């Protein structure tokens, strides 16, 4: 299938491990988070180690998928290859999708790196009761991240200067989606907002999988459903971008 | 002299600084720090409970100001390379250190503002009450910490002459400062040999002094401030000493004429 | 005449990924006061590297260079007061500043007393014709305007020696023309100028002396006239002939045909190079008339471009 082929190419050619920022996000950031977690844990007895290792891993994935997917179109614009992509016979949507998916695969690697660090360097006693359930729920979360990444890619490329604001969008998202504090502890309107984001359900599913709570399937289901909705909306947007791009002949001033 | 200084620094700011509109100021100097503190507060309360909230928020206010200063300072040099103006600056007869120093004034003012504003947010958002009766000492700490962090930035700027891409290095340093300088947890918790590194970095003593003033720790503020100031002086001296060496090395390696 | 630049066996290599690239490979030349000296060569020949070394931004790996008697290696500080430089293209400006602000900035870097700055900036912007655009942001400028701004910047410290690295690259004919007359003006004011360019006509027009550089080596040096003369053995002619079988002339041993164009039936215009040095129009007519009727023959003047191309071909 064409998309699968594109995805392979994407990972092979464009995942630039020499890119210093990628190296940082992949290898160094988890180390910083884990170190902070480790020493904060020393300040108080009896914290739930798994939950926080998983939280660290989620942050690494999160940053990776959203930063790199969000910048997928913008960096193309900078390197002026966007035009070439647009004239290629594959649709713009599938090009971007393959970029986002390849980032998702690497994000999973970053989670594994976090786990390796936490076991090898920090000697955390990491115990995941049902590895397959956990892995499945992580996949659900990554999928939702990728879909949001897709939306961000659109937003960043359509509006000038928004790219600079990505931190302002990404940091609150992590808090809002309940990576650290449960969403129930937020004021009601924030809860409503949080549950409109597929990652919130994904994060809950991941945590539920750790405690083997039966809600995991329901949460994963909601996450998938919401991601699907976003994906369809995204697809419609991309169609419009492509058309606007062709008719106006310029990009970025939308 | 001061007039010229202002003119030059102002033009550097206008030419190179990452933002200069009210809107961007609002987002990046008011909203972004707040989000950072909220993010940190969320981690802290989830992990160690709200008892440590003030402790962590204080550390992060200082760290965030330091981060702003270091990033913006280094970004200015990255922009110089991108614009192809770094070599024009270096080739001018003005001493390279003086050029770098004059460019540091805007990040310094920026860092001071973010620091003070951070303390205010701490009070309003997280009830980390400013010790008003110790205001003089508080301002002194803020000044000394921004000075020592600026010295560190100057040191990096001198180093950055040699490297055409200092991005990764910068991120490593910021990550390192977070861990080493007692930002989130006391530097005393670190293994002894790592703590000895913390003790020669700016920020470590400053944050301890700040926490003492806020009644979160009990150290001797005066001696901590002395140490912080000395460390700042140390980096400043090293920066002045190495700038010639770095410039020479950069001419040798060709780093000056590469654009990042 | 005072020697402004003295270069002896200057070389520079770069190490990249374990490989050593010799960008400049032992060049020597001298430039006298008031000269416009052209460095011509293909891309990657070492022109820019040479200029970066002479402007003290890059250290030579071998050999030495003196500017006004100061060593580029050890006395860069003295040299920087006396020189300035312009690189072609759109780099080297702060897009967010206006031209006046940009000039102000560099006035401070060059330690121009504050009192003098205002009148000096006005004067320099006037010189390059940017007075009206002085308060517009540089990012709104055209390429030509940016180049002219660079010229006005590089005059801030009243340099005795200017380096212009492809100053007319990417400019439209009018912009290039304007820049060339500016350069001529500067030369009249007694400024020594080092110029690199890809445009041979420009070099021919502006330069007192020219050096051809390729693969980091200078292969030919002299005035445009001397260079054309030295390539004189490739003598070019143009002829209009009437011939039945034009193919036959292509086999003629004494000439080598460059272009051939059919004007109308049986009438051709041909340009060719004569292989033997001593041959006049009369002899050439005789040769051609073996193949048909010669309408007329003229000797083509050798342009610098012809000389350049034939020289670079010889170097391979």
Topology of this structure?
The complex is a heterotrimer of chains A (254), B (260) and C (316).
Chain A: H1 2-14, H2 20-43, H3 49-70, H4 72-78, H5 82-87, H6 92-120, H7 131-158, H8 166-176, H9 188-195, H10 198-210, H11 216-248
Helix pairs in contact in A: 1-6, 2-3, 2-6, 3-6, 3-7, 4-7, 6-7, 7-10, 7-11, 10-11
Chain B: H1 2-16, H2 22-48, H3 53-83, H4 86-91, H5 96-103, H6 105-126, H7 135-160, H8 167-180, H9 192-198, H10 204-213, H11 221-253
Helix pairs in contact in B: 2-3, 2-6, 3-6, 3-7, 3-8, 3-10, 6-7, 7-10, 7-11, 10-11
Chain C: E1 3-16, E2 19-32, E3 36-40, H1 47-54, E4 62-67, E5 70-71, H2 76-82, E6 83-87, H3 99-109, H4 114-127, H5 143-154, E7 161-165, H6 173-188, E8 192-196, H7 200-206, E9 209-214, E10 217-222, H8 224-230, E11 235-243, E12 255-264, E13 267-274, H9 281-289, E14 292-299, H10 304-315
Using brief descriptors, characterize the structure shown.
heterotrimer, A: 254 residues, mainly alpha, 76% helix, B: 260 residues, 0% strand, disordered N terminus
Give me the strand/helix succession of chain A. HHHHHHHHHHH
Q: How many strand units of chain B?
A: 0
Q: What sequence of helices (H) and strands (E) makes up the elements of chain B?
A: HHHHHHHHHHH
Q: Biggest sheet of chain B, open or closed, and with what strands and sense?
A: none
**Any idea what the shape of chain B is?**
globular
Number of strands of chain A: 0
First-residue to last-residue Cα separation of chain A: 33 Å
- Percentage of residues in helical conformation of chain B: over 70%
Largest interface: B-C, 29 and 34 residues
How far the N terminus sits from the C terminus of chain B, by CA atoms, comes to 33 Å
Question: Gyration radius of chain A, to the nearest Å?
Answer: 19 Å
Helix count of chain B equals 11
Mean pLDDT metric of chain B: 86
Q: Which spans of chain B of ≥5 residues are poorly predicted at pLDDT below 50?
A: 1-6
Report the helical percentage of chain A: over 70%
Overall body shape of chain A: globular
The low-confidence runs of chain A, each spanning 5 or more residues with pLDDT under 50, are none
């Amino acid at each position: 299938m064409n998309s699968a082929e594109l995805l392979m190419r994407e990972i092979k050619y464009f995942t630039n491990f020499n890119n210093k920022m990628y190296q940082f996000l992949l290898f160094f950031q988890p180390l910083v988070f884990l170190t902070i977690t480790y020493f904060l844990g020393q300040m108080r007895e009896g914290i739930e180690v798994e939950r926080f290792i998983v939280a660290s891993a989620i942050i690494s994935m999160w940053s990776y998928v959203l930063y790199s997917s969000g910048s997928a179109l913008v960096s193309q614009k900078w390197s002026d290859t966007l035009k070439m992509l647009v004239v290629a016979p594959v649709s713009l949507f599938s090009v971007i999708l393959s970029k986002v998916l390849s980032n998702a695969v690497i994000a999973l690697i970053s989670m594994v790196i976090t786990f390796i660090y936490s076991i090898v360097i920090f000697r955390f006693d990491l115990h995941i009761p049902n590895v397959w359930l956990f892995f499945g729920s992580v996949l659900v979360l990554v999928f939702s991240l990728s879909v949001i990444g897709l939306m961000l890619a659109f937003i960043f490329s359509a509006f000038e200067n928004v790219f600079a604001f990505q931190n302002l969008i990404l940091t609150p998202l992590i808090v809002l989606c309940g990576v650290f504090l449960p969403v129930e502890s937020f004021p009601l309107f924030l809860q409503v907002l949080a549950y409109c984001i597929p990652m919130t359900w994904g994060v809950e599913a991941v945590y539920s999988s750790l405690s083997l709570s039966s809600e995991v399937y329901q949460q994963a289901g909601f996450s998938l459903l919401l991601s699907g909705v976003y994906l369809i909306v995204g697809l419609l947007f991309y169609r419009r971008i492509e058309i606007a791009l062709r008719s106006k002949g310029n990009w970025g001033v939308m | 002299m001061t007039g010229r200084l202002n003119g030059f620094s102002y033009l550097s700011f206008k030419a190179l600084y990452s933002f200069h509109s009210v809107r961007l100021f609002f987002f990046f100097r008011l909203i972004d720090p707040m989000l950072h503190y909220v993010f940190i507060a969320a981690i802290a309360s989830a992990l160690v409970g709200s008892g440590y909230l003030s402790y962590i928020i204080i550390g992060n206010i200082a760290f965030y100001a330091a981060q702003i200063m270091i990033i913006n300072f280094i970004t200015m040099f990255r922009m110089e390379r991108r614009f192809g103006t770094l070599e024009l600056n270096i080739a001018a007869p003005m001493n390279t250190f003086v050029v770098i120093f004059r460019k540091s004034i805007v990040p310094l003012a920026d860092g001071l503002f973010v620091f003070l504003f951070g303390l205010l947010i701490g009070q309003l958002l997280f009830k980390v009450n400013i010790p008003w009766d110790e205001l003089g000492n508080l301002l002194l700490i803020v000044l000394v910490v921004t000075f020592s962090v600026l010295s560190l930035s100057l040191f990096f700027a001198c180093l950055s002459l040699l490297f055409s891409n200092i991005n990764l290095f910068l991120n490593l340093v910021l990550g390192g400062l977070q861990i080493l300088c007692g930002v989130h947890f006391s530097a005393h918790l670190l293994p002894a040999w790592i703590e000895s590194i913390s003790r020669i970095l700016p920020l470590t003593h400053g944050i301890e002094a700040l926490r003492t003033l806020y009644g979160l720790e009990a150290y001797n503020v005066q001696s901590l401030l002395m140490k912080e100031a000395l460390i700042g002086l140390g980096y400043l001296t090293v920066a002045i000493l190495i700038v010639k060496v770095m410039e020479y090395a950069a001419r040798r390696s060709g780093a000056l004429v590469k654009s990042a | 005449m005072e020697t402004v630049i003295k270069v002896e066996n200057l070389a520079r290599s770069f190490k990249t990924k374990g490989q050593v690239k010799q960008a400049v490979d032992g060049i020597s030349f001298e430039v006298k006061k008031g000269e416009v000296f052209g460095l011509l060569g293909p891309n990657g020949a070492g022109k820019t590297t040479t200029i970066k070394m002479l402007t003290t931004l890059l250290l030579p790996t071998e050999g030495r260079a003196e500017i006004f008697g100061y060593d580029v290696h050890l006395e860069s500080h003295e040299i920087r007061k006396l020189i300035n430089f312009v690189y072609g293209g759109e780099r080297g400006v702060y897009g967010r500043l206006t031209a006046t602000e940009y000039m102000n900035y560099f006035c401070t870097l060059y330690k121009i007393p504050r009192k003098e700055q205002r009148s000096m900036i006005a004067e320099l912007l006037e010189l390059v014709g940017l007075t009206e655009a002085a308060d517009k942001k540089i990012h709104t400028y055209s390429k030509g305007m940016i180049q002219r701004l660079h010229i006005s910047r590089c005059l801030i410290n009243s340099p005795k020696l200017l380096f212009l690295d492809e100053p007319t690259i990417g400019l439209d004919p009018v912009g290039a023309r304007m820049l060339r007359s500016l350069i001529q003006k500067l030369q009249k004011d007694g400024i020594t100028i080092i110029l690199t360019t890809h445009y041979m006509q420009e070099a021919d027009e502006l330069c007192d002396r020219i050096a051809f550089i390729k693969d980091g080596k200078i292969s030919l040096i002299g005035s445009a006239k001397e260079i054309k003369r030295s390539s004189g053995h490739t003598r070019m002619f143009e002829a209009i002939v009437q011939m039945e079988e034009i193919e036959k002339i292509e086999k003629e041993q004494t000439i080598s045909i460059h272009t051939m164009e059919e004007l109308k039936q049986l009438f051709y215009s041909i340009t060719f190079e004569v292989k033997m040095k001593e041959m006049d129009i009369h002899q050439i007519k005789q040769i051609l008339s073996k193949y048909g009727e010669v309408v007329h023959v003229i000797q083509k003047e050798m342009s610098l471009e012809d000389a350049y191309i034939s020289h670079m071909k010889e170097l391979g």
